[in-house]
Specification:
Layout (H helix, E strand, L loop, with lengths): L9 H9 L5 H19 L2 E3 L2 H16 L11 E5 L26 H8 L3 E6 L33 H8 L5 E5 L6 H7 L2 E4 L20 E5 L2 H11 L17 H7 L6 E5 L9 H16 L3 E5 L7 H16 L20 H12 L2 H14 L5 H24 L2 E5 L15 H5 L6 H6 L2 E9 L6 E8 L4 H19 L3 H7 L8 H4 L3
Parallel strand pairs: 2-3, 2-4, 7-8, 7-9
Antiparallel strand pairs: 1-3, 4-6, 5-6, 5-10, 9-11, 10-11
Bound molecules: glutamine (GLN).
């Protein structure tokens, strides 16, 4: 069977559109149809508007017809996490407090994606204000993992990852503060990259923890992620922490996939006891694959990584408590109790009480406490010292190796509801991903197989030094090629073909 439009990679889709074999409108319509078919079950999208998407697609077709050179992703649909400001289009961060708000401007990343001719196909579900690891903290809906709909798709960017795995979009945008791109990628067998901090612009991205937040690409293939990374990355004067340097050569790295002689450090502290057996098994098999390809594998100790989670859950809420102060009932979205007699403080209190969910409130309270004058040094101050020690562990590692690797998550996708009553169990999902946010280096998750015990995806995490994001793509592309040979094709094809038992109707849907 010829691959349907839905089964094409973003690179292939872009090539067909550029060659005039397919229009941007047809590509958008095929994905809108798929959303119509499967999103009642998957629930990856918070907002779609066919007319909005088709109007963008028509404009791209017109620009291409006029001979404009738009680059390799022109006409390719993209799903957008609902944390990115999209001018005139609802942007809720999955919170009641922003219900009905339409931003007056586009985030820089959105501007760049539009300029490159990508077509936004909808806004995706997430944990409220990106706080969570399961997308269950969304105020509006839970999202199913397309591999097993009763399982979580990861979080906070579960909607973007699920949209990719359900073939509702070939590309998506995410943000990663403690793992929100990589953990959803790991549990859905998709590719998720957290660029170097400062490598992609945060302007117009609703802030969670500003010193950690980083937008990044989500895709089904390594090359697709690199193509999107190249479009969205690069210096932005509107973001004061943006690095004034060219985007690392990510596309060339994804095309090369050369790992011969690459020194790969396995982080001793991430893995082993407490990790699911299937996660460990697939991770070690992937290491063997890389060794066979000529990479040099050594063990590296990063002793302070074990304190990462604790320090993150002080630094992140501290920044959250400050960033979320702007939702004051006056400027955006919801306003509760404004009956003409209530004081400003009463309206603010009522609005924040009604508008924020439990996890958001928990973090605002923890952060406010950690920053209070009597406790500042003991909590926030100590956490900052741990952050420095983690960065020093990375620096020491880079003296010996080119990249570090670990499982991306300790377990595969857990069941919906399983961890929602136990915040600490939920926080453990980010054990492996947090160190890279703390140090600001580049990091990614790539699919490395299905765990034998439950048949669910396992993610392989690669970490690279600041501005060496291209190394992630070299390792990812090497793994992708070698493993596709072993599996007889990309892992996600099995899902589309129904072999995983969750048939989404993709393979046959393309009578159209
Ligand atoms: N799961 C982590 C948290 O809840 C990470 C969130 C994120 O990266 N946005 O904080």
């Amino acid at each position: 069977m010829t691959p349907s439009v839905l089964r094409l990679t973003a690179a292939e889709l872009g090539a067909r559109i550029a060659a005039g074999e397919l229009t941007a409108v047809e590509a958008a319509q095929a994905h809108l149809d798929q959303i119509g078919r499967v999103d009642g079950d998957v629930r990856a999208f918070l907002h779609t508007d066919a007319e909005w998407s088709l109007a963008q697609a028509r404009a791209v077709d017109a620009r291409l017809a006029a001979g404009e050179q738009l680059g390799p992703l022109a006409g390719v649909p993209i799903a957008v996490k609902d944390i990115f400001c999209t001018a005139g289009v609802p942007t809720t961060c999955a919170s009641r407090i922003l219900e009905g708000w339409r931003p007056p401007y586009d985030a820089t990343v959105i501007e760049r994606v539009r300029a490159a001719g990508l077509v936004m196909i909808g806004k995706t579900n997430m944990d409220e204000f990106a706080m969570g690891s399961s997308t269950e903290n969304s105020a509006f809906q839970t999202t199913g993992n397309p591999w097993a709909l009763d399982r979580i798709p990861g979080g906070s960017g579960g909607g973007s990852a699920a949209a990719l795995a359900a073939f509702e979009a070939p590309l998506a945008l995410g943000t990663d503060t403690g793992g929100s791109i990589r953990q959803p990628a790991a549990v859905t067998a998709t590719v998720g990259v957290k660029p170097t901090y400062g490598g992609t612009s945060r302007y117009g991205v609703i802030a969670m923890a500003s010193s950690l937040d980083q937008p990044g690409p989500c895709a089904r293939t390594v090359l697709d992620a690199a193509l999107l990374h190249a479009v969205m990355g690069g210096h932005d004067p509107m973001d004061s922490t943006s690095i004034d340097a060219p985007v690392p050569p990510v596309v060339a790295a994804a095309r090369s996939g050369e790992v011969r002689g690459l020194r790969i450090g396995v982080v001793r502290e991430l893995g082993g006891e407490g990790y699911a057996p299937g996660v460990e098994q697939r991770f070690h098999e992937a290491l063997d694959v890389l060794a066979d390809l000529g990479a040099e594998i050594v063990e590296v100790s990063c002793p302070h990584f074990r304190y990462g989670l604790g320090a993150y859950y002080l630094i992140m809420p501290s920044e959250v408590s400050s960033n979320l102060a702007r939702f004051d009932a006056m400027r955006y979205g919801l306003r509760v109790g404004d009956d003409g007699t209530a004081s400003v403080v009463e309206v603010m209190r009522a609005t924040r009480g009604a508008g924020f969910g439990a996890e958001v409130k928990r973090r605002i309270i923890i952060g406010t406490y950690a920053l209070s004058s009597g406790y500042y040094d003991a909590y926030y101050g100590s956490a900052q010292k741990v952050r420095r020690l983690i960065a020093q562990d990375f620096d020491a590692a880079w003296e010996r190796v080119d990249v570090l690797v670990s499982p991306a998550t300790p377990t595969t996708a857990f069941r919906k509801g399983e961890r929602i009553a136990d915040p600490l169990a939920m926080y453990m999902s980010d054990l492996c991903t947090i160190p890279s946010n703390m140090a600001g280096n580049a990091s990614a998750s790539f699919p490395c197989g299905l765990a034998p015990e439950d048949g669910l995806p396992v993610g392989f995490q690669v970490m690279a030094p600041v501005l060496a994001d291209d190394r992630l793509y070299r390792v990812g592309a090497a793994l992708e090629r070698a493993l596709a040979e072993r599996w007889g094709g990309p892992l996600l094809d099995r899902l589309a073909d129904g072999a995983a038992g969750t048939y989404l109707g993709v393979a046959t849907a393309e009578g159209n």
